[in-house]
Design goal:
mainly alpha; rod-shaped; about 75% helix; about 160 residues
Amino acid sequence: MSETPIVRNSTADVPTDPPAAEYISSQEIEKLPPEMKTTVSVIAGMFRSITGPDPETSRIVAQSEMHEETCKLEAYKESLKIKDKQNERDHEFRKKRLNHETLKNSVILAVCVVGICAGLYLLVVKKDQASLGSSILIASFMALLGGGKSLFQKEKD
């Protein structure tokens, strides 16, 4: 018993959508007699609404959506660049302010140490100027404890 193989045509079994060229265009509808124009245009409109937009319209919609997303991405990248530049400027400003504060505190420390030494010298060695020495010693010590900040100065940040 020999069996003969059944050969199927693969394209005949699969239903295919009509290509874009087979859609009825408005120019073809205009060529029809007046009594058929309305019927054909209604049927063509229903067919288009059922099958969706034609491939050209879908391509244009997809391209416009891609363009919109690309523009959003570019805008986001630019905003990140602007934020990075602002952060760099803020960092440089903070570094300069810290350097200035360090220099100011170093000068205050040096002046206070010199004042304390001068006060001790006047208090211990020069007994006749002990009151001046004690005043300089107290003022230098208080300036050292206060960090050179004035009581009337407000901190700005």
